[in-house]
Each structure stands twice: as structure tokens, then as C-alpha cells.
Amino acid sequence: MFIKLTIPFTDKSIDINIKTLPSRITDPRYWPESPTPVLWAQDSFKNSSEQLKAFQGWTGDCCSLIAERIASIPLRLYNSNDELIPESKHRFYDLLKHFNPDTTQFSGKELLSIFLDLTGECYILIAKDSFGIPRELYFRQPDRMTPKVKKGIIDHYIYLEGGKEIVYPREDILFFRYPNPTDQFRGASPVQRKAYAYDTDKYNMIYQMNMFKNGVHLKQVMESEKFIPPDQVKKIMEMFNQTYGGIENSNKTGALVGGFQLKTIGVSNKDMEFMLLANWTMRQLASAYHTPPQKLSHPEQTNLANMQALDVSWNRECILPRLVRIAEIFNTFMMMLYKEKGLYCKFDNPVPADDEFLLKKRESNLKNFVININEARVEDGLDEVSWGKVPLAPMNIMPLSGADGDGSSEPEPGKSIAKKYTEEYKRKYWELFIKRITPLENEFKRGMISLFQQQELRALRALRNGKSIVKKDIDDVLRITHDEREIAKFAEFTLPRITQMVKINGEAAAAELGLGFDVTNPEVVKWIKEHTGESIKSILDTTFDALKRTLAEGVANGESIPSLATRITAEYEQCKGYKAIRIARTETITASNSGSYQAFKQSGVVEKKEWLVTVVDWPNVRDAHKALHKETVDLDKPFSNGLMFPSEPNCRCTILPVIKD
């Protein structure tokens, strides 16, 4: 029986005789429980022994890379009060340091991960002392272990060793497994989802090895018009292979005499495009393990910034879920054996910190006098210094004071607070407010531009995946704006920055009153979470509507993929231009004024609030806000426009506190 197979990345196809193909799919030796072979690739991996043999090539690289990373992350113990238990204070750490006399902590965690990623299952036998306390851990081969189910749960395990069956009680085995939708009591290997790619990679490597070893193409024949006796044919073939076969004889010039002709009936090495095929299988198998291909091949082609971003993504999407799964098994099935209430273990967070963001946050806090030098030194583990007790401000930073010509200042906030402010005081108050939030606005704008750039690339890739325009291609583009990955990226960027804005301006407003501000107050936290969610939804909904409108127009006009791509680029140019500026300004002013408002509420001395419009650029202030200038309302009441504080697009207004009598 022959099947026609199209060769990836080429326009060629070959006929393959599946009776002679050395495939596990059609070989009944690999199917001891199946009377009839099953003809799809993923079932060729239902045998755990076969899965263990996959520890080679790209699959082996993925498993090894993940295992080494997991083994390098500390597993720590905590008590019921979430306090870290030192290593010298508990027997659990002794168990981890030496799983057993032949297995160290690193190799134990590494082997656990390899078994899981190859077979989807890992079995560990708990050896206990006479008090039932775990003393040693021993691995059991997944291909020899079988869980036995009774009444809907695993009752015991049967292990085959030396032709004998060993029965292990349920409570003696730690059973780690990946979810299997076809059998909830067994695990499913990640490579099982990419069995076609694994088989392709395997046969690709075998073919290349034989090419180098034999020195000639497979499926080549020598033809002659004359009849030649079989014994002479054999001698000629031996002489030909000795002269031109093998690696040492490659690229020699050959000669055929006696009317012989060399004819190739297979596919050439160039036609097979082995390098492209190897790259394709590498990417397929890497995706099964949620591993960036750059970590497996040619990292030198990726710059440092992209590599760091990939490392963050890999640790968050690949390593972290595996650590959580492993820790949960320990906590659920082994920690109770120590008979200590509330005891649990947890891996350190493997996701690297955003060093760039932390550095910018530190600089912003120091420049805006949120923290002093000593507080920054303590964060770095350094000793305090005598000159670092108060924030350092340059000479050109002036305190808010009156300037009515007689040299008198406004009453010191928090001690004798004025019931009315001079116009000069209000002007300086607004200028200081804008100076404080401008760096935050610029940083937010740069982040939005970066997020829109990444979203644009994803949208263009989704559009260009198709050869012709169908509704599915447009849906794929639009779906990108609201998929889980995109929402997570916007949330990870937006949430900490809005929190920072609220904190900085809340503390500044509270300082004017001679008081403190608590950003962890439940009411403040609730506002931050709700506003961040509403903000992200609004941004993504707006982008979705704009893309839907322009793409629908392009499809209706019968435009090609390049033309639709131009429409997408044009829309994102607006997103990266004036829309990013508007979003940054709106979010910054909203979060900053929210911080001031929350600080007024926490103070207990502010009775009312006053709307303050910029007087520096009065002609350009919108009429609606000019009408609100100096409007005073109760602290818990909205202004006449319905807002609790200035928060409209492109607004530059703020609020002043009005103190109780």
C-alpha cells in the first residue's frame, strides 16, 4: 500500500510504501493491548516505554532544559502563619537534600521533571520510619507502574519488577501527572500532542545519518542495456561502494563504463530541505513544552532585551505551572505525614523581576521625594547613613507659599491650615502637581506604544497566515485584541503603574496636611483593581472596534491581504501616536487625582474639595472645565459634572482640600 506524502517547504511529493516504513504506528509489537494498530500518530505514544525513548533530539533538549531550571529553584517550607522555616529546623529539608543514598536534591528534582515531561507521569515511593515520617524517596519507572482504580479513586499501584508484581498502597506513592482528558487516572505526555513532528524529526535524522554514512542517495540504481550475470552485478556494486561510498570518499569524481548509467529515483538532499525541516520540527516540539525556540537553537540571533523578555515569558508560562503542580502533590499527599498543622512547601518564584521597571520606580520615588536615601539603601541591604534621613530636593524646588509681596508664607500645612488659598498658592500647587505626574505620564505613554507595537505584529501575523481572505482570518485578527495573553500583558503593565501613581500623589496630598497615606487601604485597593479592569477593557474595546470597522470596509471593497495589512498598520499608527498620548494623560490624571481624593478621605480633617483648573494655560482650557474652576462641594459628593475628581480625557485639572472649621 502506497501513500503520497508532500514534503514540507517544497512543492514535491513522494510515494511511500507503508508496509516497509519502520513506523511504530503500524508495528503491532508496540500494541500489546490492541488487537488492531491504530492509525494516528498520537496513539503511537500511548506506551510509556516508547515515551521514555523520546529523550533525544529536540524533545530531549526541551525536557533537559526545563528539568535543569526546575531543579535549580529552591523548595522552601512554611508554617501555618506563612513564616519561612529555616533549613536547620525541619526534617523535610534533610529529605530533600538526599532523596535517597544515590539521589541528591538537584538530580531528584531533575529526574522528577524529566519523567513528567516524557511520559506525563512520575511515581515516587515514600520510605517511612516506624513513626510514619518520610525518610527517603525512591523513583519508580513509569512504564512499569499501573494505578488500579476502585470505586472511582486510585486504590493501589502495581509495579512490575523482575517478572514479579509488587503492590504499593495508595498512601505510599506520590503520583505526579499531567492532565489526561481521555483518562483522569493517568497522565498525558506533552510530546504526545506533537507525535507527528517527533516522528518526522526522528526519520529526518536517520536519513541524514545514512546519507553521510553511505555517501550516496538512497533509492539509486545503476542501469545497463546489456544483460549482466548476478555475480558480476554483485562485484560491480561492491567495487562502486568501496570506491565512492562512505564519508571519506565524498565528492569524488566517478566514472561508469560498460554502458552503465546511474539513475536517482528518490528525492535529492536539496529537495528534502533538511535544515528547514529540522527547524520546523524543532518549533513544533518546542511549542509542546511552551519553550521559546530561541532557547534551543541560535540564541546569538536574539538580542539581550528580547532574550530577557523570552526568559520572563518562559518562566511564567512553562516553569511556574510545573512548580505549582509539584508543590501541590507534596502538600496534599506527604506534608500531613509530619503531623504538623498548616505545614506546606512552596518553590521560590522563578519569574525574573522586571529590573527596568524597578529601577525607574526607584528613580521616580527618589526624584519625587517619596522615599529618602536611607529607605533606598535598606532595600539594597546597605547600612543607613546620617545624611540620608530626609529626601534630598534641589534648590529650585520651592515650598508652596504665599507671594503677596510682604514675604509672609501660607500657614504650614497640618499645623494651622488656611481656610482659603491665595491665587499664587493655587498656581504653585498646580505646577508642582503637573511636575510630579509628568514623568509618570511619559513612562505610561512609552509602555502603551510598546504594547500596541506588539499587538500590531500579532495582528499582521494572524492576517498573513492565510493565502486568501476568509471570515476566519479577520476573526483571528480581531480575536487577538481580547485573548487571554493580550489582557495579561496590559494588566501586568497597567496595574503596578496605576498603583504607583495613586501612592505617589496620595502621599504628596497627605504630606500637605501633615499626615500619612495608606495605599493598602481596602477602599484604595478596590478602586485600583476596578479602575484598572475598566481601563484595559476600554482600551482593548476601542482597538477592536476600530480594527473591525476598517477591515470590514476593506473586505467589502475586495482588497488583498497586503492592502488589509496596510489598514491594520495605519490603525496602529494612530494607537502608537495620539491615542497613546491621550491614554497616558487620562490614566495618569485619573489615578493621581484618585490618590489625592483618597488621601483627603483618610485624613479625617478635609471637609470639602475644590476643583482647580490650570491658570497657566487658561485660554486653552475647555469651557466645561472653566465653569468648574473653584467649584467647592462636600468631600463625598460629586461635582456638578458628575465626577468625584477630574478624570476626563486629556484633562489637566486637580483638586484642593477644604479643611473643616
SS-derived structural category: alpha+beta
Proportion of residues in helical segments: 40-55%
Strand content: 5-15%
Instruction: Compute the CA-based radius of gyration.
Output: 35 Å
Please work out how many helical segments DSSP would assign: 17
Distance between the termini: 97 Å
Widest sheet, order of strands: 7-6-11
Number of β-strand runs: 17
- Large-scale geometry: extended
* Biggest sheet record: 3 strands, antiparallel
**In terms of per-residue confidence, which ranges show pLDDT below 50 for 5 or more consecutive residues?**
16-45, 400-419
Overall pLDDT metric = 80
Notable characteristics:
661 residues; alpha+beta; three-stranded antiparallel sheet; 17 helices; 17 strands; extended
Description:
By secondary structure, this protein is of the alpha+beta class. Among the domains are: 220-265; 355-388, no CATH class; 423-659, no CATH class. The protein contains 17 helices and 17 strands. A 3-stranded antiparallel sheet has the order 7-6-11. Mean pLDDT is 80; it is low at 16-45 and 400-419.
Secondary-structure map:
Layout: E1 2-6, E2 13-17, H1 48-52, H2 57-71, E3 75-78, H3 91-97, E4 98-100, E5 103-104, H4 105-119, E6 121-128, E7 134-140, E8 145-150, E9 153-161, E10 164-169, E11 173-177, H5 195-214, E12 220-223, H6 230-244, E13 261-264, H7 269-272, H8 274-288, H9 304-333, E14 344-347, H10 355-367, H11 373-379, H12 423-464, H13 471-480, H14 484-512, H15 522-556, H16 561-603, E15 606-612, H17 623-626, E16 632-634, E17 654-659
Antiparallel strand pairs: 1-2, 3-14, 4-5, 6-7, 6-11, 8-9, 9-10, 12-13, 15-16, 15-17
